[in-house]
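Hi L., both proteins are below.
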Amino acid sequence: MKRLAASALAVTLLASPAFAQAPQPAKPVDLERFYSGQRLEIGRLPMRLTDGCVAGATAYSKADKGRIAVRDTCRDKTPAGKEKAIEGKGKIVDPGTNAKLKVSYPFFITWEYWVLDHADDYSWFISADPKFEKLWIYTRKAPPKAELDGLIARARALGYDTGKLEYPEPLVQ
C-alpha cells in the first residue's frame, strides 16, 4: 500500500506545472540563417518583466568566441514610447540542432530559450523556455491575421494555453 501511495504521489508531482517541460524543438535551426537580424515579437505569455512593453523585438548577431549576441527591446506603453533594451550573450546548448540557446544578461540573469518550431524560410518562429512557463511568437514582419491565427494554432498544438497570449502593438517598420 505504501508503494502505491508513493507512486501516486510521484505521478501527481510530475504532472504538476512545476515539473512541466516544454516540448522538444520540432526541427533543427540553421545557425547562420536563424541567428541574424531582427525579429518582431507578435505574441507572448504575460510576465512582469514585459508589463507596459509594446513593439517588442529581438536582434541576433554573431559575437566573439562562437557566441550569439542578443538584443531584446521594447517601447514603453506605445510604439513611439521610450525604448527599453537589454543585451546578452548566448551560447548554443545543443550543437548540431542549434535550437536551444542559453543567454546571459547583465546582473546575473540567465534564460534558456528553445526554438520549438520555425518556418522553413525563417520568416517566423515560436520560442519558449524549457519550464513551459514562457512563450513567444516572432516574425520578420507583422503578419496578416490569417498567418497570425495559424501561428496561434501551432502554439496551441504544442500544448500552450493560447487564451493567455498578449498581442502588444508591433513595431512599425
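That was the first. Here is the second:
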Amino acid sequence: MKKIVFNGQFLARRMTGQERFAYETIVELDKLVGKEKIELVIPPNAHNIPRLQNIKIVETGRLKGIIWEQISFGLYTLRNKALSLNLCSVMPIIKPGIICIHDLSYKVNPQYCKNLYGKLSQIWHKIFYHLAWKFSPIIYTVSNYSKQQMIDIYGVKSEKVHVIENGWQHFKTVTEDDGIFQKKTRLKKNEYFFMLGSLSPNKNLEWIYGVAEKNPNEIFAVAGNIVSYGDSYKDRNLQNVELLGFVSDEEVKALMKNCKAFIFPSKFEGFGIPPLEALSVGAKIIVSNASCLPEIYGNAAVYINPYDTDVDLNELLSKTTTGEKEVLEKYSFKHSAEKIYADLCELGYDLS
C-alpha cells in the first residue's frame, strides 16, 4: 500500500485562511487515523508545527518555500511512491496528488493581478488548475459555489470535486486580549466597525473607505496584512479609518467581540472564515452578497452590495438576523477531516 503524505510547506508561512484550513483539518484527521498511517512532511523552516499523536511528522530537504515544495517534497513523494494531499492550492508538478483548490479567482478575476507578482502568481496557480483536472484523483474545494465554477468553466466532472468546508472551533481556544484598546486608544468598545482583511483587491478595502468618507462620525478599524497588490491607500488619509496592520488572534477576538458589527465586504471568496469567527463571539456580521458568502451565511448575516457605498449604517445595524447557531453547527474542520478520511478509505487505504 502506498504512503499518504501531507504537503507541510504551509507550516513555514504566516497563518491566514488557507493555512488555518490546512492546519486545523490535519489536527482533526490526526484524531481519526491509526498510528503512522499518514505522514506530514515539512520543510526545515517550518515553525508552526502541530502536536500530533498519530500522523508522523517527517522533515526533509534543505530548501525552502516553493522550491522545497516542488523539489524536496516532490522527490519525497516519488521515492516513497506516495499519494500527496495538498490543502493549499499547490502541489508538486512532478507528481500531482490530491489537491484543495480553494477558489478560481486567478481565472475569473484577472483584474486583481495588477503587478508583476500578481501576474506571475496567476500563471503559477492556473498551472495547478490544469494539473488537477487531469491528474488528481480527488479535487477538494471549500464551497459549492467554487465547485460549480469548476464544472461550468473547465468542464470538470462533478463527482471528481468534493466540498470540504472551513470551521471556527479553533477560535474557542483563543483568549481575547483587551490590550489592543490600550494600544489603539481611539477604539472604544462598541463604538467602531471592524474589518479583518488585506489590500488584496477582492477583500475590498475600497468599500470601507467609501463608506467611511460618507460617515465621518463613525470609526472603522481594519486589521490584517496591509501589503499592496497594486492599489495604494497612502493618499486616502481618512481620520476615521484606523489601519491596524497585523494583530494577534487574541486581539482579533477582542476586536470582534466589542465591535458594532464585523464587516466583510469581499468581492470574491472561496469561503471566508472571519465572519464565522465573529459569529462565534456574538458579533453582528455585515457581509457582501457576492460569490459564496450567501451560501455560507444564509440568514445569519446582513448583506451589502460590495460595489455600492451608499448605505445607511443604522439601518444595517437594525436588521434582524436568524440562524446563527445553525451556521456555527454546520461548519467545522472535524466534518472536513471526516470527509477526507472517508474518501481515502474509498480509494483503498487502510487508515485504522
